[in-house]
Every structure is written in C-alpha cells, then in structure tokens.
Write a structure and sequence with these properties.
This protein is of the alpha/beta class. Helix content is 36%, strand content 13%. It has a domain of 138 residues: TIM Barrel (Alpha-Beta Barrel). Strands 1, 2, 3, 6, 7 and 8 form a 6-stranded parallel sheet that branches. Strands 4-5 form a two-stranded parallel ribbon. Helix 6 links the parallel strand 4 and strand 5. Bound molecules: zinc ion. Zinc ion binds next to loops.
Amino acid sequence: MYYPIKIPKWFQKLFPAYLWRGATGQNKKQLYLTFDDGPIPQITPWVLDQLRAYKAKATFFCVGANVQKNKAIYQRILNEGHQVGNHTFNHVNGWKTKHQDYITNVTACREQVESKLFRPPYGRLKWQQAKELRKDYKIVMWEVLAGDFDASITGEQCWQNVCQSAKNGSIIVLHDSQKSWQHLSYVLPKLLEHYHRQGFTFEAITIEDES
Ligand SMILES: [Zn+2]
C-alpha cells in the first residue's frame, strides 16, 4: 500500500485553497491532531481520556452515520472542548461518487455534525465537488499521515512515521476506528508524551486558521 507519510510543501502549494497546516504562534510549538472516522464506542472515549491527561485539544472528523449511532460520545467530544468536522455521512470516496450524490452525503452528515470544517474521506475530492463545498466549508487536509490503518507496518514504524515528519504547525491524521486501533493505541500515548516533553501544545483546528 503506497501513501505519502508527509505531504511536501510544493504539493501543498498546488492546492492553496485547502488547509494543510495549522497556525503557528510566535514562540509557540503547536501540533494539530485530527481523528477521522469515529465516533466509535470502543475507541473514541479512550482517545478522549488520553487527550485529557495532557490538556490536549484535537479535531474529530466524524462520519455522520457513526454520530447518529453514538450521540453521547459525540456530545462528550464537544463538551471537552474539541473541534469537530464533517467527514460525509457514509465515508464516501469523492473520485467514485457522482457530484450530486456526494454533496447530498455531505449534507446528511451536516444534520449530525455542526461544523464549518470538512475533510474528504481518503483526501479524494473532484474539482467540482471542492468548488461547491468551499462555499460552506473550510476543506482541511493534512501534512502528516501516520499510517495507523496500515496492518503491514508495526506500531513502532507507525510512530516513526509521525516523529520523523511532524513539526511545528503540522496537522497529523490518526483514526479512531477499529481498523487503526492496534497502531493508535501504541502511537497516541507516545506521541502525546514525546511532544509534551518538547514543549508542544496540542490544538484544535479553528475556522480562522489560514489556508
Ligand atoms: Zn476517513
């Protein structure tokens, strides 16, 4: 399975309308953790506990169907001061979905997830879809992909993906999904401890972050 661990700057610049990195304050070291595909009962509450231990804030790109099934967890995400974003209702692939069907699926998610942030599943979006969605959303991509969904690597390799690529302002993708649990449960505690010791704080993405 090939996927880029780190999205290079030149590529980010090809798509300036997308948000690839979070704000970096003066003399501040900040990372932006994002968790896609939840909320899931066996995993998301654990993630929230980990974040709370470090006073870390994060952004959860939720799948509408999962929010519908797990409203209490969704509410807990909000209550604990995290940001949420729209990740479509059924985790649909933009490249394989007709324009209107795609927009309808995003709108169905909107009934569950109130947010001006949108992240396309798989990072895949056709130009026409992007154009339409930008009227209502800030489209959030990422700089660092941990690969926590990849069963062909070890937890340690997944951790190396993060710690060799993340730097001040990086948006990092992790998944609060069953598929990623094995790597996530190894990487997240390490990540929080490692960067906390280096003086980083963990921030939620806001609509004001520049793209
Ligand atoms: Zn996803």
